[in-house]
């Protein structure tokens, strides 16, 4: 009996030196025990989790089980762990899990997941995984919403064998909320960066900003204002979410979108202390709390435009506890402010993503305003050209005609559709091939010899759309961006008068030559 009692220890010792495994026959020969005895002990040790077995052909190879003691696993892992028996009752829970769930071990032991009513693991999705667990480990992601915030866990359901051979299940939950948020935020910033580039000029970019901030921080109440630098005032452009907007409307007695807030000295004194630089970073304000560094009232935020009693009612009714404000700023230029409001219990979890999006949006607004200024400048430039008494054309660096003023069409009869590029112009204006080649060669040689900003006048005989021919003085000049600005002057009468004068002089010379000597 003593030898039989010592057999498990001897088996473990034999397996320790054969990490690749041994068959039952090899173990029996090694320790000098019958094959039946070794087989019986190995089966018990497998159930107890002390040895592992794998099939190699028709043979079974036994090796030491490489397992971490459960006690150490429960104490030192940062994950949440629950162990269930075969009936699905909780038989063990680690300290980290008790802290996270705010439930003691005594409250949980002996209960099923449904009876315990725990966050995350008592959801239908998690229970379905546990009930469907067989031999293989199952890994799944679970989403849980708590206090308006989405939490994400990765749950591993691991088939477990206890020392007495009973089957059970170990649940290991890893908090992957930060990983999920990071991935979601990167996808959000990538998507919105592309959308801001492609946003149509007629779209309300401030409304877009409010919508996207509300998508990023769904629990927040969002307000976005634009800044009118000329009139020194802020204009409320959007409020999200819709429920918040309707509640504000009921309290204020009107829809506040479109409200103008004048820029007063209030913003540059306590409690704001604004300077152009302070618009750039995200700032946090506590509304109607105990006096402190960032203590402000909603009345202060509204610059006195909304009566104080209405502001106080709004803060109390809507349970507003704090506000985060950040300027829509790019290169010392302020375009507006994005503000998000929370209850006293809520926090801004996606601070970096929020700030990054506001910077993207600020750059988009700056680009929009630059493009708008360029459009206005180009429009004024074209108006000046169109009102000029001289015929004029704009030709881009690729030789395409981009603008013809009214005087050009009056002079030649051609419109922009008739001569979209220089090739068509030369074909129509110079019907004679020899004259056309001379004109093209002159254009190219002048372009190579004369620098940008210098005029290169030439006179050519040009055929008009009506078929008539006119003598035209060309005055082309290349602008800094490669665009050519060309003015055209009809010198037909001058050329005709000059030719008549030349003809008269020639006739006088002929007469003088033909007169007999005295």
TrEMBL record:
Cleaved signal peptide residues: none
Keyword Transcription regulation: no
Organism in which the protein naturally occurs: Methanofollis fontis
Transmembrane segments: none
Domain HTH cro/C1-type positions: 20-40
Protein name per the record: Histidine kinase
Domain PAS: 377-419
Keywords: Kinase, Transferase
